[in-house]
Amino acid sequence: xxxxxxxxxxxxxxxxxxxxxxxxxxxxxxxxxxxxxxxxxxxxxxxxxxxxxxxxxxxxxxxxxxxxxxxxxxxxxxxxxxxxxxxxxxxxxxxxxxxxxxxxxxxxxxxxxxxxxxxxx
Length: 121
Fold this sequence. Notes:
Blueprint: H1 2-5, H2 10-55, E1 58-61, E2 71-74, H3 89-98, E3 103-104, H4 110-113
Parallel strand pairs: 2-3
Antiparallel strand pairs: 1-2
């Protein structure tokens, strides 16, 4: 483009280049807005997927006293608020095998989501 402008008067080239600069600045702003929107959508999708993963998880509360059994909770249980150590279905089954007398939270009822009958008692 610059080669085609070489024969034009300097004042005209300045006007054309300023117009080009302004258009390129506009295009850059549009691109930055689009990138910001796509990044926000990506972050929201990541948060949504993490929330879904957690919603389908369980957590194991350690026994409070020696000789007691740990307690199984749904991941979103308000009674046991730790935000780490989520178990998937396979690991929840391992916990049930490891602790045959595993207690289950009466508030969040994790047995239902595991397809188990309600504990007696």
